[in-house]
Design goal:
single chain, 408 residues, alpha/beta, 7-stranded parallel sheet, 6-stranded parallel sheet
């Protein structure tokens, strides 16, 4: 099968972030079985070596420059906002749009050089014209609902700009309602997102395909290190992660230190913003920045904390911690899409929402090595059975080929 994949995010290396992880691993699986033409954009931080490495993964790689500048000033901002409203398209989608890519996509479709177009993340939907459905199968791998994420941030009080997001919310609703109509198949990562997208496409085909874990990069640890060491992992310039780190460092961690003064907290991830870097000054807190191996820090931790208060979709950080055999304490958001407790379900993680609940859960795990062992074993077993990239790739291939997808 000839597949045309569109990704405005350069999907290599897969350690850059959640979007790259999902796109690269699905791409890697498909490229072993099909002919892949990948069209992507290159930001200034992408190296020639990374381009060469990605080239080895696909049949044909087409790399275009990514727009880097946006004119400033109130008049230009108002003009961009007016264009966004008129086209019912978010400004970041319009900003990344490339006429050169559009011309290339149009040519490939008109010449019959692809059987399927897949947009890796909804931001790439802009290149798919409605008439394409008459010639090729069109698939959008949504990752997470932009409308649902914005609504969630407003509801949870974690929006960076409340006025802007309140104005944008109706626009995002119309946007997702409009663009989803262009696709033969919608792909999401969780049942919650499927329900959200179903409001836009009640009769549409919507497949739930969770993320996976590279078990070689995240092997299960050989033993329990004990002690009182907490870890949070993730990109430190991501809005949802920033909010979670603030909550963990400023509210949860001080309460834990009152009970266990020797407790350490490691904030592990690339691109920490200045506010997060400043947490290095707080007793017991270490901000690492980018590290060669997330797994090493997970293996040394007593508990992995995932106190997310916003952000739709399944969380790679939760899956990777479970794969590494680290007990997890997380919010409902941090555990979205995962069966970790309840009737008939082995206990795989502890759930919390308030500071008091987090402290109680941490206290339980610090004091009970058998409970830590249970969560470690059950979490790893869940990943091995349901959340490998091999499993995700098989399900994604079925979605691209319009085959029935076997549920987990």
């Amino acid at each position: 099968m000839n597949i045309l994949m569109l990704s405005s995010t350069f999907p290599y290396p897969p350690t850059r972030g959640g979007t790259q992880v999902r796109t690269f691993n699905l791409l890697k699986y498909l490229s072993e079985r099909h002919s892949i033409t990948l069209i992507t954009q290159r930001s200034p931080d992408v190296t020639d070596q990374e381009v060469e490495a990605l080239q080895d993964t696909v049949s044909k790689l087409m790399v275009f420059p990514r727009p880097t500048s946006v004119s400033s000033g109130w008049i230009n901002k108002l003009r961009r906002f007016g264009t966004s409203l008129a086209q019912a398209t978010p400004q970041n989608v319009l900003h990344l749009y490339s006429p050169l890519i559009q011309a290339q996509v149009d040519q490939l479709v008109s010449q019959g050089e692809c059987e399927v177009i897949t947009c890796e993340h909804s931001i790439n939907e802009i290149y798919v014209r409605p008439p394409f459905q008459e010639k090729v199968r069109t698939v959008v791998n949504i990752h997470s609902s932009v409308y649902g994420s914005c609504r969630d941030q407003l509801a949870s009080g974690t929006s960076e700009n409340t006025l802007r997001d309140r104005i944008n919310l109706p626009l995002l609703y119309r946007y997702e309602q409009r663009y989803t109509a262009k696709f033969s198949q919608l792909v999401v990562t969780t049942e919650e997102d499927r329900q959200q997208m179903q409001t836009f496409r009640p009769d549409g085909s919507i497949a739930v395909i969770p993320n996976g874990v590279d078990l070689e990069r995240f092997p299960c640890r050989l033993g329990d290190p004990g002690g009182h060491r907490l870890v949070f992992v993730g990109a430190m310039d991501n809005v949802a992660n920033i909010d979670a780190v603030r909550f963990l460092t400023l509210e949860i961690f001080p309460a834990v230190r009152q009970r266990y003064p020797d407790t350490e907290l490691f904030l592990v991830g690339a691109r920490p913003i200045p506010e997060i870097q400043a947490f290095n000054q707080q007793p017991g807190v270490t901000v690492t920045g980018q590290v060669p191996s997330m797994a090493e820090y997970l293996h040394r931790a007593t508990i992995c904390m995932v106190p997310m208060r916003t952000g739709y979709g399944i969380k790679n950080k939760t899956l990777e911690a479970m794969a590494a055999g680290v007990p997890v304490i997380a919010s409902d958001r941090g555990l979205e899409g995962l069966a970790v407790d309840g009737p008939g379900v082995p206990l795989r993680a502890l759930r919390a929402s308030t500071v008091e609940e987090y402290v109680t859960a941490i206290d339980r795990l610090f004091a009970d090595p058998e409970l830590r062992a249970t969560l470690s074993l059950n979490g790893r077993s869940l990943i091995e059975s349901d959340y490998t990239w091999e499993t995700a790739g098989q399900r994604y291939e079925a979605a691209l080929m319009a085959q029935e997808i076997t549920s987990q």
